[in-house]
Structure formats: C-alpha cells, structure tokens
Amino acid sequence: MQQTWIILGATSAIARSFARQMAEDGAGLILAGRDKAELATLANDAALRGARFAEAMAFDTAAPEGFRNILSRAAYEEGALNAAVFTGSMPAQDQVDADTALIEATVIDNYAGPMRFLQMLAPMIEERGHGTIVGVASVAGDRGRLGNYVYGSTKAGFATYLSGLRNRLNRAGGHVVTVKPGMVDTAMTWGLDGLVLLASPDKVAGDIVKAVKKRRNTIYSPAIWTVIMGIIRTIPEPIFKKLKI
Questions:
Q1: For 169-225, what is each residue's pLDDT tens digit?
Q2: What's the gap between Cα 165 and its chain centre?
Q3: Is residue 245 domain-resident?
Q4: Which structural domain range is residue 91 located in?
Q5: CATH code where residue 113 lies
Q6: Which pTM was predicted?
Q7: Does a structural domain hold residue 98?
Q8: Of 158, 195, 202, which is closest to residue 14 (Cα–Cα)?
Q9: How far apart are CA 113 and CA 70, in angstroms?
Q10: Less Cβ crowding at N or C end of the chain, within 10 Å?
Q11: Is the pLDDT of residue 19 over 80?
C-alpha cells in the first residue's frame, strides 16, 4: 500500500534519521517544522534516497491555523496517511523555576500542539481505514522526578493521550505507537550533566521503524529503559522523594 508520512519536527535528530529510512522505503514525505531552509535541504536528500515525493512545509505547534495546510496537502495522496511527532522542547527545571512563562511554551510544544494536530488527523485515518501515528513521549513521563518534572508532566500527558487515541483508531484499522526514548545524543541534551546510556538518533529511529512494522503499542528505546523505568516506577514514594534523580 502507498504510504505517506507527515513528519512533525522534521529537523530534529531522530526525525532526520526516521525520514531517511522512510524515504529509502519509497514513502512520500511531508517534512514539517519551523526552519524552512533546513527542511528544503532534508526534502532534497529524501528525494535522492528514493522518496515518492518529499515536500517541506511550515509547522509551528503554537500556530494551529497552519495545521490545515499540511492536512490538506496530505489528503491529495492515496493510500495510508501516517504521522510521526518529534516536536518538543526541554527547558531545564531551574530555568522554569526562574521563568514560569516557560511552562506554557513547554506544554504547547510537547503536548497541546501535537494533540490538536492529531485530533484533526484522526478522522482522516478513520475514513481510510488504515494509517499509523508515531508519538514520541519520554521516559521522563513515567514518574515525576526532581530534575525535570515540568517537562516530564507534558510527556506523561502526551503518552496518556496517545493511549486513548490508539484505543479509538484501533476500531477503524489505524494504529498508534508510543515511543519512550531514554537520553538521546541530540541538541536537546547537549551540555547536560550526568547523562547515562546515551543512545544515538539512528538507534532510536531504527527502533521506531521496527515498532511501526510490527504494530507495537509502546516501546522504550533503547530497550534497557524498559527495565530501568520498571524499577523506578516501583520505588515507594517515601523513598523516591528522597532520591536525587
């Protein structure tokens, strides 16, 4: 079946790798984000790699009036309409403590904006009877931790939303994959202290591609985070609130 992928936040490191792999599979790509010059470069690269088509389009989580343009373009394509959400921002907790206006921006980037877009896409998937959504959450959403609980709360909310959307779309033949990466070697984590088990963007993107093909529901990437977060979730609250993690 012909595949079209809308990739939101397409200039992020993981999204770039995912787009390359989808292009090599011959999918059509709508590469959406804020940096149109960089998106155009990515579109040219995808076309050279074998994408059926590759088009750069403007996308801003804080400007929902532009969402319809992307969806209208995608509607022209036959076959499965898919979307992968890589948008997000991760201000340091001390920055949020100093400037609470960052809370709203983080909620829009990580949760409210993507959720609104996917709500608009969902009826299109239901009408066609097939299509996949990939939503990138985070291990940070599994439990509120001292170092990034504002960021973590937005990812927790997004993961819960994806779970409900999966329940809805499953009834119409669609599917939703929730991805919870650990720490990834990207611009978002550059310069942070205490990083462990740092994964490459290519590793996470490869795990996502496999999860899409196998119709997995939720994955941790790398897989070791399944064990780590399983342990962290079981720590009793009286002990957990004393830990500096």
A1: 999 999 999 999 998 775 554 444 455 667 899 999 999 999 999 999 999 999 999
A2: 14
A3: no
A4: 3-240
A5: 3.40.50.720
A6: 0.92
A7: yes
A8: 202
A9: 14
A10: N
A11: yes
Domain count, the chain: 1
Q: Give the pLDDT confidence score for residue 186 in this predicted structure.
A: 57
Q: Using an 8 Å Cβ cutoff, are 115 and 64 in contact? A: no
How does pLDDT run across 87-144, given as a tens digit for each residue?
A: 999 999 999 999 999 999 999 999 999 999 999 999 999 999 999 999 999 999 999 9
Q: Would you place residue 42 in the very low, low, confident or very high pLDDT band (cuts 50, 70, 90)? A: very high
The residue count for the chain: 245
> Concatenated DSSP letters for the chain?
--EEEEEETTTSHHHHHHHHHHHHTT-EEEEEES-HHHHHHHHHHHHHTT-S-EEEEE--TT-GGGHHHHHHHHHTS-SEEEEEE-------HHHHHH-THHHHHHHIIIIIHHHHHHHHHHHHHHHHT--EEEEE--GGGSS--TTTHHHHHHHHHHHHHHHHHHHHHHTTT-EEEEEEE--BSSTTTTT-SS--SPBPHHHHHHHHHHHHHHT-SEEEESTHHHHHHHHHHHS-HHHHTTS--
Give bridge partners of residue 7 from the DSSP assignment: 31, 84
Residue 228 lies in a domain: yes
Structure confidence at residue 77 as a pLDDT band (50, 70, 90): very high
Per the CB < 8 A criterion, the answer to whether 114 and 37 are in contact is no
What's the pLDDT score for residue 198? Answer: 73
Strand partners, 55: 30
